[in-house]
């Protein structure tokens, strides 16, 4: 599958039924388009099985609750919709996007309680998110924007509005020849990349930011479990930017990113060492098991 995302062959699940890809449309006065009232999940299907599928569906519902937006489908119904989309498109290895949003209705101001909550599921083939950086190590810029305080926005939700500064920061990074950008949080601590969590290695131990102002990614949680099972000490803590000079290895985790080594962040360089390679290989084996 190739070409613009609104002009492809295939089926998309929309509000309870499969429709032709090109017919999956919303009105220009859809509330989410104007006020970012939407939440979503990105998932990967390997060999016909979506990795951590139920956990993703549960998080979608939770994200909706955090935005005061009750999603009108159960976990079981969301799971069935994902299965239907994969089968309708003949996909066994794919990226799956589930999105729920406030649609067009009687409200068009900030309030939207009278508007229906809609949902769609699409799937397509998608290779390595960072291209060949997955093998050689990604190069990251340092974003000028900061991840916001959880007192200002529901940072635990996978919500569209939280990605505005991610798009801006990734564009700035790509203009500099980088794959992505690293955010600090509102306090100045190391936070995450634009769509992935981050890990560091020093003296054989792993360090990763506490997810108190960032999304606690499902891949992040999986990798921490894998590291602990290998007997590797994992420190979930607040990390200062100047500590980047002392770390030896670095990698990103996310459904799209999977486990991607990082070779450089700003002026700091890292090796693609044994722990990074091993966890990347073991994660790949796990998701395909």
TrEMBL record:
Q: Which UniProt keywords apply?
A: Amino-acid biosynthesis, Aminotransferase, Branched-chain amino acid biosynthesis, Pyridoxal phosphate, Transferase
The molecular function terms of the Gene Ontology recorded here are:
branched-chain-amino-acid transaminase activity
Per its UniProt record, the required cofactor names are: pyridoxal 5'-phosphate
Q: Which Pfam families match?
A: Aminotran_4
Q: Does the keyword Nucleotide-binding apply?
A: no
Matching InterPro entries:
Aminotrans_IV, Aminotrans_IV_CS, Aminotransferase-like, B_amino_transI, BCAT-like_C, BCAT-like_N, Class-IV_PLP-Dep_Aminotrnsfr
Q: Does the keyword Transferase apply?
A: yes
PROSITE patterns, per the entry: AA_TRANSFER_CLASS_4
Q: What is its EC number?
A: 2.6.1.42
Single Gene Ontology BP term? L-valine biosynthetic process
Reactions this protein catalyses: L-isoleucine + 2-oxoglutarate = (S)-3-methyl-2-oxopentanoate + L-glutamate; L-valine + 2-oxoglutarate = 3-methyl-2-oxobutanoate + L-glutamate; L-leucine + 2-oxoglutarate = 4-methyl-2-oxopentanoate + L-glutamate
Pathway listed for it is: Amino-acid biosynthesis; L-valine biosynthesis; L-valine from pyruvate: step 4/4; Amino-acid biosynthesis; L-isoleucine biosynthesis; L-isoleucine from 2-oxobutanoate: step 4/4; Amino-acid biosynthesis; L-leucine biosynthesis; L-leucine from 3-methyl-2-oxobutanoate: step 4/4
Similarity remark: Belongs to the class-IV pyridoxal-phosphate-dependent aminotransferase family.
The identity of this protein, by name, is Branched-chain-amino-acid aminotransferase
Show the taxonomic lineage: Bacteria, Pseudomonadati, Pseudomonadota, Alphaproteobacteria, Rhodobacterales
What is this protein's gene name? ilvE
């Amino acid at each position: 599958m190739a070409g613009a995302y609104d002009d492809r062959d295939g089926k998309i699940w929309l509000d309870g039924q499969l429709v032709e890809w090109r017919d999956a449309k919303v009105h220009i006065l859809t509330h989410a388009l104007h006020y970012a009232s939407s939440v979503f999940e990105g998932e990967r299907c390997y060999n016909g099985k979506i990795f951590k599928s139920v956990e993703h569906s549960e998080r979608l519902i939770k994200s909706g609750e955090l935005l005061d937006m009750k999603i009108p489908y159960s976990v079981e119904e969301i799971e069935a919709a994902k299965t239907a989309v994969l089968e309708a498109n003949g996909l066994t290895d794919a990226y799956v996007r589930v999105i729920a949003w406030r649609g067009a209705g009687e409200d068009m101001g900030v309030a939207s309680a009278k508007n229906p909550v809609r949902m769609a599921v699409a799937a397509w083939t998608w290779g390595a998110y960072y291209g060949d950086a997955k093998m050689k190590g990604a190069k990251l810029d340092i974003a000028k924007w900061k991840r916001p305080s959880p007192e200002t926005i529901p940072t635990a939700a996978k919500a569209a509005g939280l990605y505005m500064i991610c798009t801006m920061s990734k564009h700035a990074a790509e203009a500099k020849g980088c794959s992505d950008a690293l955010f600090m949080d509102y306090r100045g601590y190391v936070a995450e990349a634009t769509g992935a969590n981050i890990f560091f290695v020093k003296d054989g131990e792993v360090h990763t930011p506490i997810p108190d102002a960032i999304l606690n990614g499902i891949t992040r949680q999986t990798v921490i479990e894998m590291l602990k099972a290998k007997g590797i000490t994992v420190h979930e803590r607040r990390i200062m930017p100047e500590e980047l000079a002392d770390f030896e290895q670095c990698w990103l985790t996310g459904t799209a990113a999977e486990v991607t080594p990082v070779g450089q962040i700003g002026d700091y360089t890292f090796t693609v060492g044994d722990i990074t390679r091993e966890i990347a290989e073991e994660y790949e084996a796990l998701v395909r098991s």
